[in-house]
Amino acid sequence: DAADELAGFRERFIVPKRGKAGAEAERAEQGADEPMVYLCGNSLGLQPKSTRAAVLSDLDQWAALGVEGHFAAEAANPWWVIEDTVREQSARMLGARSVEVACCNSLTANLHFLMCAFYRPKGERQVILLEGKAFPSDDYALQSQARLHRLDPEAALVRLWPRKGEETLRDEDILAKIAELGPRLSVVLLGAVQYYTGQLFDLKAIAAAAHGVGAVAGFNLAHA
């Protein structure tokens, strides 16, 4: 860990103390002022130390400029184009062009927008393939999409589960399920990294398999 070039980033975050959070047993075993070992970033990450100042800066801008905070030249961070501040960074991270990247809304809202564009069930091609333990709000969104098309979510959503006694999905089982569903499959929507287990999926192989049966492949990178 000491040799990790990213190790210093830990100092940029506020790590809760054991005396403020965590199980009672942990508090008894460790000092109350000791920082927690925090491994829940898949649910809610730690607060950056710069957050409070950034929020207060926008509150000051709101107080001083009102609605003009959206546009005014004197605004330190004009809200109208706020997504542009991370567009280039996001494009570099994704290996995409900046014009191909949109930064907007919540994860669930974005999933709905994407599904409205790409989930077009027709005839027997109605199935959405997802993980058995997908992030709960992702699962709810896909259920809603099925209902939007007057389909039964129990029939339209097919969930992938590990084999009995195993914790993660096998790549060959994912590809086999895609082949099995074949002409019934409309959309494959998986996380790049499974949020519950941390499993990394072979996105290239999954996308190729989905396209091979005429389906759309989508990947949720929010937990990657």
UniProtKB/TrEMBL annotation:
Keywords: Hydrolase, Pyridine nucleotide biosynthesis, Pyridoxal phosphate. It comes from the Eukaryota. The keyword Translocase does not apply. One of its GO terms (biological process) is NAD+ biosynthetic process. GO terms for molecular function: kynureninase activity; pyridoxal phosphate binding. GO terms for cellular component: cytoplasm. InterPro entries: Kynureninase, PyrdxlP-dep_Trfase, PyrdxlP-dep_Trfase_major, PyrdxlP-dep_Trfase_small. Transmembrane segments: none annotated. This is Kynureninase. It comes from Prasinoderma singulare.
